[in-house]
Amino acid sequence: MKRRLMSIFVLPLLCLVASGNLSAHTLSDSYLNLSLDQQSVSGHWLIAVEDLELAIGLDGNADSAITWGEISQHRSQIREYAASRLTMASDGQPCSLEIGTLMIEQLNAGPFVHLPITGLCNGVAEVTLSYSLMFDIDSAHRGILSLRSNDETYVRVFSPDTATYEIDTELPSDAEYLWTFFIEGIWHIWIGLDHILFLLALLVAIVLVKTPGATGQQQPANVPFSTYFYDVIKVVTAFTIAHSITLILATLEVVSLPGRFVESVIALSVAISGINILYPLFRTRAWQFAFIFGLIHGFGFAGVLGDLALPQQLLFGSLLSFNIGVEVGQIAIVLVLVPILALLGRATFSRRLALGTAGLVITVFGVLWLLERSLSLSVPVLS
């Protein structure tokens, strides 16, 4: 009885957990760029319009479209909210920070409010920054800091667990930023729900549906892992190589694609991979499918680094560290999912019901994401 229940419920539950919610806004980042020159501070802060809508409410007429007029009407609240979530001190003394006239800037992730920042400090040898934007609303939010002083650039990432940084600007910029982007690479694939669901659907179609080399027959119970090991390796490797290629090309600005197109095609890949569980579309060519759509998924990963506008001297190291982090995070996902799917494969009763439910859940999420992203049904846009 336990195996029957596991077969019917666990796989659909995995899909629901992996997909989380229907929002296309799976990443929440702000970008804080500051320069220190003797006692003066200058720079800007980019905060997503969608995040500000969640934090203070911008959509006055509730039509799901944030206009410049609505942003302008809330400019005082936006400045007050931002100012209350960022503090800076130097040598133990608070710095005076002022937020100027806000503007709108379009990034890969969507529209952002551009907040100019100026200020004065007693000194800039030892700087302490504390950041708490969105942490009480979205624990997945990250604040990405790029601080320039004495021809050195210090990159840090604020999170609920690390909301304060102390930076000694008289010391050379160390390799901490490499570790920072390594962790960010892991984090961004773990919260990249569409990437996870795409990978999950491919693994389901390999481990549970067919025996490698078979001619379309249902996979028997207790199939040894070695029988589908190479298929799993081929799919994961193809996906890795593909998204690494486009991540590098897009970050270096060799190739560029519109953000809405990229996100829509990623959603389409989820929908098609879900249909493949229900009906064999490409089960004998899974690795080719993973490679083709992996190229598009790479553009999705690249949006994070592209929006940062990192200095040239940090670009290569950050790109390499971020990509390694993505791969490590992906390997961790595969190491968790494949054994679970293998255990489910032993529960033969009602397997068709379990697979049908899983395929349907993945397909529905993919289609809804596609509609949401391609038609902007619920994503705030500037009109």
| Structural class by helix and strand composition | alpha+beta
Query: Separation of termini?
Result: 56 Å
Q: Point out poorly predicted stretches.
A: 1-9, 19-25, 211-219, 379-383
Average pLDDT over all residues: 80
Structure annotation, total helices: 11
Amount of helix? 40-55%
* β-strand amount: 15-25%
How many structural domains in the coordinates? Answer: 2
Number of strands: 11
Radius of gyration: 23 Å
Give the overall form. globular
Largest sheet: 7 strands, mixed
Topology pattern, helix = H, strand = E: HEEHHHEEEEEEEEEHHHHHHH
Structural key phrases:
single chain, 383 residues, alpha+beta, 2 domains, 7-stranded mixed β-sheet, 4-stranded antiparallel β-sheet, 11 helices, 53% helix, disordered N terminus, disordered C terminus
Descriptive overview:
By secondary structure, the protein is of the alpha+beta class. The chain has two domains: 2-24 and 192-375; 29-175, no CATH class. The protein is 53% helix and 19% strand. Strands 1, 2, 5, 6, 7, 9 and 10 form a seven-stranded mixed beta sheet that branches. Helix 6 runs antiparallel to helix 11 (351-375) and helix 8 (259-278) runs antiparallel to helix 9. The longest helix has 34 residues, at 312-345. It starts with a helix and ends in an 8-residue tail after the last helix.
